[in-house]
Amino acid sequence: MSFNRFDENNFNQFFFFHSFPAFERSKKRREKLTSRKSKSKQKLVYATKKNKKIKVKGEFSQAGLHGQTVVEKPDTIPPVITLDTSSATSSDASAHIPELIRDKTAIVDGRLVPLARVSEVTAMIDLVGELNRQMGTALSYFVSSLTGTGYDILTADGKYYAVFPQVIYAKSIESSSQEKSYLHIKLVQDIQSGEWHILKSYQVNDGSLIDNIRSEINLLIQAGQFVSSVDSLAYNQTLYVIKHYAPGYDLTRLLREEISFEEKLFASIKMTEAMLRLHHHCQLLHCDIKLDNVVYDRKSGIATLIDFDVSLSMEGSAMAVSDKLRGTFGYLAPELLRSENKYVFNEKTEVYAFGMTLAKWFGVEAFLSSASGLSEQTLFRPELSSQQSLVLPLIKAMVSDDPDERPTFEGVLRQLQALAPALEPRKSFMN
């Protein structure tokens, strides 16, 4: 019997005849570890006693301790260390439940797996994973009937991620082989730290898609958004990619809310700063800037760029060349649409797409006809407000047909900041 993803039918016979006796033996070994020092590689672990730090030798790696702060029991020498690794994590991370989760009632204290159960759950998963490895299979995905938590759990790089069942996004992926592949995106939570992440599950039915996924992973690493990945292609034709979760909503969703011009201006400054970081620090061209691919958190004032599927690395240059047109129509610079077979992406093509994004964000798209030929939008267009008139000249310059007339992102940032000199210290517009 060998399988990578447990289901209840496979598990019933396997577990009760193989796992339970071994689990009891493992439990006894863990109890012994809590009463004596580990014989593993010696490291220094700090314990707190009467507000003073003392050094305690030994790393109880099998018991789950890896350098966390340890609270020593009063009048107990030597200390009995039985810490759960999750007890040393930040409460802030676990307290925040992502806005994308519709039903938050079942989540207690911000955690899918209660803190008190983390040690028990991880021990069970480690045991079953080890038993499966002895049978020649590397197990990484554990369904809820096994975990006893009500959630599937994915293991990756020594961490345990509880999978929230709500599907955020799903699509089929066409290929030349006529075999459709599928992508499902869900939220996952590191059950030890409480941090939330995005899980992209690719069911791969066409081998040509694998190279695209590997390329996406490299881009996520370059953008600083990659967390981990799990290759289960040999077992269930699935490749899992875990990336950082960006709190907030995309701009398309935010436009449904009542947002003041002041807040939109502040968010625009943060978006521009994110673009500068992407270009100068990450050396990436996004190539698909639009409302859907910018996430803004109204509470923290943080703007995050997402979806790097078609991004290009500048590799020390100020441009990147592709044999494929990348991006979304309505945001593509005119010079890209005029090109054939060879498409040059650079800062000016990014500025154009960002300008179109800001035009929609501020509601001035209908007033760009003189700059981008959108003459059909001049019909029945609304009246331009005094606040919109402040940003319109900048946005018109950003979407100019002539790339040389478009400002740089540094120039865009300076002009936005000049319009809002008192906004920068403000972090939240939420009550």
UniProtKB/TrEMBL annotation:
InterPro entries: Kinase-like_dom_sf, Prot_kinase_dom, Ser/Thr_kinase_AS, Ser/Thr_Kinases-Pseudokinases
PANTHER family the record matches: SERINE/THREONINE-PROTEIN KINASE TNNI3K-RELATED
Keywords: Kinase, Transferase
Protein known as: Serine/threonine-protein kinase StkP
Gene assigned in the entry: stkP
GO function terms (MF aspect): ATP binding; protein serine/threonine kinase activity
Listed SUPFAM superfamilies: Protein kinase-like (PK-like)
Top-level taxonomic group: Bacteria
Residue span(s) of domain Protein kinase: 153-423
Organism: Aquicella siphonis
